[in-house]
Design a protein that fits this description.
Blueprint (H helix, E strand, L loop, with lengths): L1 E5 L7 H4 L5 H5 L4 E5 L13 E2 L9 E2 L1 H14 L6 E10 L2 H8 L3 E5 L5 E2 L1 H7 L2 E4 L9 H12 L35 E2 L2 E2 L2 H4 L3 H19 L1 H9 L5 H10 L1
Parallel strand pairs: 1-2, 1-6, 4-7, 5-6, 5-8
Antiparallel strand pairs: 3-4, 9-10
Helix pairs in contact: 3-5, 4-6, 8-9, 8-10
Bound molecules: ligand 9WO.
Length: 248
């Protein structure tokens, strides 16, 4: 799988690609990430990548031409017709299902905007898909690109430990079914707060039931929309429904 990232600031990515459980996926090339800097495709003494907006107004707009040349260079290296993705609040919200689709794909070309935005003609003619992380504005598309790469890399085979790998399973994932349960570690009492007794009991059946009940309760309270989806998908057992009925 290959992701090409078009960015004025490739150095922002390095710290995220070289630490943690996803490091091996990136360093082995399992998730191959290549960078193209529009600056390298800009012309003239000043190598401009931006200019003032037609019609006036604040800020600068990214020039279409250096972005298009960067794309052409990438296309000459990969001839798989990979989709061009732009990170923008206009786009479709990224969720776990989309991350799963990307993690099984052959990759994409990720375009990171800066300044006030990108010349619309580049977006209209070159961008296949826009992806949003939510209804807020950033100073560039790099943070969303890193978020996508991280989410995709952790779903690659061998990245999650065996203990975590159930999260890849579409029937027991934290985010397309129910929210995750709370986690506790040592000490048993911290700052006057004890770990729930059941977790210290050694009763694996009771511990599993408690965790399931916590997930159901957390989801019912914080994300009732997700609970409805899980219910509609037939993911709730009679025992689950009995617990939820007892909560009301
Ligand atoms: C910003 C913007 C704001 C309101 C409506 C549409 C918008 N599009 C963009 C945009 O594409 N901006 C470029 C990328 C240039 C300025 C910085 N950029 C950006 C991306 N800011 N915020 C995002 C972003 C991307 C994904 N999810 C949330 C925010």
């Amino acid at each position: 799988m290959r992701f090409d990232v078009v960015t004025l600031f490739p150095e922002l990515f390095t710290p995220f690609l070289t630490v943690g459980i996803t490091r091996r996926a990136f360093e082995s090339g399992q998730v191959d990430v290549q960078f193209s800097n529009p600056r390298d495709f800009a012309t003239g003494n000043y190598r401009r990548v931006d200019d003032r907006p037609f019609g006036g107004g604040p800020g600068m707009v990214m020039l279409a031409q250096p972005l298009e040349l960067a794309l052409a260079h990438i296309r000459s290296q990969r001839n798989d017709g990979a989709p061009v993705v732009l990170f923008s609040p206009i786009g479709k919200r990224l969720d776990h299902a989309a991350v799963q689709r990307w993690s099984g794909s052959s990759g994409a070309i990720l375009v990171c905007g800066r300044y006030e935005g990108i010349d619309q003609r580049f977006i209209d003619t070159q961008v296949d898909e826009q992806i949003s992380l939510g209804d807020f504005v950033l100073s560039g598309g790099e943070v969303p690109a890193i978020a996508l790469l991280d989410a995709v890399a952790r779903l690659q085979p061998g990245v999650l430990s065996d203990a975590d790998s159930h999260h890849q399973d579409s029937f027991n994932p934290s985010l397309d079914g129910l929210l995750d349960c709370p986690h506790y570690t040592r000490p048993e009492e911290w700052d006057g707060h004890r770990v729930p007794d059941v977790l210290l009991s050694g009763h694996h059946g009771q511990i599993e039931r408690w965790r399931r009940d916590q997930r159901l309760q957390l989801t019912a309270v914080h994300r009732p929309d997700l609970l409805e989806v899980a219910r509609g998908a037939g993911l709730l057992s009679q025992q689950d429904e009995a617990f939820l009925a007892g909560q009301r």
